[in-house]
Design brief:
Strands 1, 2, 3, 4, 5, 6, 7, 8, 9 and 10 form a ten-stranded mixed sheet that branches. With about 425 residues, this protein is an alpha+beta fold. The chain is about 55% helix and about 15% strand. It is built from 16 helices and ten strands.
């Protein structure tokens, strides 16, 4: 094997190897460019999935539990639609993958200004609410304190649409058997960049919603449970486990709807799956391009060194030994291309991650920049798959070696 590596290191060197040297450079660049595209595509796809699923979970939780009584009534603000504290709460909170367990109250409302009327959904939260997501997306103002009882946290899209600024007083109209009015202070403006949700939800005190609905303090519209991660692979198993815990301790509430982000926001999930399909197509195309260029390079090396092959055979080297020489040369080229491509791709990804060089239109992509999620395991898997696929394809041109006759090649020299 050492002889194969030694001979491979001499191929393409010197004045007679200029064409092969050029082919080597082209092959290395082809492999490098292909792996750069593959790694960036995988990291961007993972970035989109991570960012969007985190936003979906922040708005609606990974799992939502609400009451669905059999009467089919239209007024969700009545007592029969309220959810009491679940007896399985402590069991659910103790699960290792649960990060938050929140009881929230909802009620539809209208905001009226001098020029606009906007329908919204008021999301009532209490002092135990997890503000981490809104803290990371807050643009102006501040998050409400524990003593605030008249706050409203709205999105940037809603603020621009209705002309609200921090500290303004907004008038909310709640329609029921009679119209009720509440004036709340805009404490802050956040930017989540999810259009359908941004212009719909207003965060306010849960006490306000429960008072309007005539509910006791421990009643809620929905229980939202958030996980440590939001991968689809573990979602369905976790949902089933939580469903079993809830139903095992169910007494007075007989009709529950237990759903999650993968069902409630199926359109976004389908869009993410389409991205994954695009990444798979890119992976196949880039490997094919690299392999084609590598085959061309190996053929150039074969034809330029055809007399050397004849000499090696005349000296007693078997076909398998000559194949090993050219496979060793191919190994060196592919490994060099992968190394260069990995370094460049990681530098580009780190630059995008920390400096957001490439921007996006949030109306179309739900984000204002191209997200990246660097996974070393994914990069290693991409490298391994690319290497194995290219080397497997390179076995094809190496079979030409067995057809070379020493007498003809030495005579041609």
């Amino acid at each position: 094997m050492r002889l194969s590596w030694f001979v491979a290191s001499r191929i393409g060197s010197g004045k007679k190897g200029r064409l092969a040297s050029l082919g080597n450079v082209i092959a290395v660049l082809s492999v490098a460019i292909s792996i750069i595209v593959i790694i960036i595509a995988i990291s961007v796809s993972r970035g989109f999935r991570k960012e969007i699923l985190e936003k979906m979970a922040a708005f609606n939780g990974d799992i939502s539990i609400s009451v669905m009584p059999p009467t089919g009534g239209a007024d969700f603000n009545t007592e029969e639609y309220s959810l009491p504290r679940l007896k399985s709460e402590s069991d659910i909170r103790s699960l290792p993958y649960v990060t938050s367990f929140q009881m929230l109250s909802y009620r539809p409302a209208m905001i009226k200004t001098q020029d606009n009327i906007q329908g919204v959904v008021m999301k009532g939260v209490d002092s135990s609410f997890n503000w981490r997501f809104y803290e990371s997306t807050l643009e102006e103002g501040s998050l409400p304190g524990e003593s605030d009882e008249d706050f409203a946290l709205i999105s940037r899209r809603m603020a621009d649409m209705l002309g609200f600024k921090v500290s303004d007083r907004a008038t909310f109209y709640f329609v029921g058997s009679q119209v009720q009015v509440r004036r709340l202070r805009i404490c802050g403006i956040y930017s989540a960049q999810l259009e359908n949700l941004d212009k719909l939800y207003v965060i306010c005190p849960k006490k306000v919603i429960n008072t309007l609905n005539g509910w006791e303090e421990d009643r809620s519209s929905v229980c939202q449970i958030t996980f440590t991660d939001h991968s689809e692979g573990s979602y369905w198993k976790r949902k089933q486990e939580i469903t079993n815990l809830v139903l095992n301790k169910l007494d007075d509430v007989q009709y529950l709807r237990i759903s999650g982000c993968y069902e409630d926001m199926a359109n976004l999930v389908d869009w993410l799956r389409l991205l994954d399909m695009n990444v798979l197509i890119i992976l196949i195309l880039m490997i094919a391009v690299s392999a084609f260029n590598m085959v061309s390079c190996v053929l150039i090396i074969l034809f330029e060194n055809i007399s050397a092959i004849g000499v090696l055979k005349a000296l007693g080297m078997k076909n398998s030994g000559v194949k090993k020489v050219f496979l060793a040369k191919s190994f060196s080229i592919v490994a060099t291309g992968l190394a260069i491509g990995n370094i460049i791709a990681i530098i580009l990804l780190l630059a995008q991650k920390y400096f957001h060089i490439m921007s996006l239109n949030p109306d179309n992509y739900f984000l204002d920049h191209v997200p990246v999620d660097i996974s070393w395991w994914s990069i290693a898997a991409a490298d391994l798959i690319s290497f194995i696929a290219i080397m497997a394809i390179l076995l094809i041109p190496s079979h030409f070696i067995s057809r070379i006759e020493p007498a003809q090649t030495i005579k041609a020299k």
